[in-house]
Amino acid sequence: MLSRRILLGSIVAPAVVLAAVSVAWACVPQGTLTLNPTQGAAGTRVMTSGSGFEGSEPIEIRWESRTGPILATTTTTGPSFNNVPITIPASATGGVHYVSAANTGEHADHSATAASFEVTGAAPGPQPPPPPPPPSNSADPHDHGSSAARAKAIKRCKRKYSAKRAKTAAQRRRMAKKRKACLKKAKRLGDDHDASSFSLASLPLFGS
């Protein structure tokens, strides 16, 4: 009778332990992982989202497997995360690869999950420098100064030969004629073919 009790106890005790372990693992969820986008060249920036993880532990996102290079670690504990950015390694070769996610603590093995990413090409190389600006059409290095002088001369022509200063129709006609000649010369200041032959002193408004 005693031997039967001992035998029964030796069977029941391991079963109880096994059942307790099974219940403990059953309480640990297995996560799910999604990638956006799911394909692209090496070096592509990808947003990762997951759910169903153990809520008391951070989550590591790794390349290829749970022991691969770490791409990101969530800054807050689970059970879910959204839009955590990762970058597909620039050295990744073409074809289907995997991004894994798992809790970082004792529940890592049970919570581990993965999603596939298809590498469609090599990482883009360094961008070439921008082309040099086209050569200026102006041969005069002081063109900016000439433009300022031209604008100033035009303004003074309009002020000096304003029709408001004429009292009679004859004076208005003479004023308009002088204004036209003054503006014509002023507008030619700074032109490539005429800048050297004109100066402010040559304008009528600086004469008597």
Describe the structure.
This protein has 208 residues and is an alpha+beta fold. The chain is rod-shaped. The longest helix is centred in the N-terminal third of the chain and has 25 residues, at 2-26. α3 runs antiparallel to α4. The strands form two sheets. The chain has a five-stranded mixed β-sheet. It has helices at residues 2-26, 108-111, 143-160, 169-188; strands at 32-36, 39-40, 45-51, 59-63, 70-73, 81-87, 95-103, 113-119. 32% of the residues lie in helices and 22% in strands. The chain folds into two domains: 28-119, Immunoglobulin-like; 143-206, no CATH class. A hairpin with a 6-residue loop joins β4 (59-63) and β5 (70-73). It has four helices and eight strands; from the N terminus they run αβββββββαβαα. Residues 4-26 have low confidence and may be disordered.
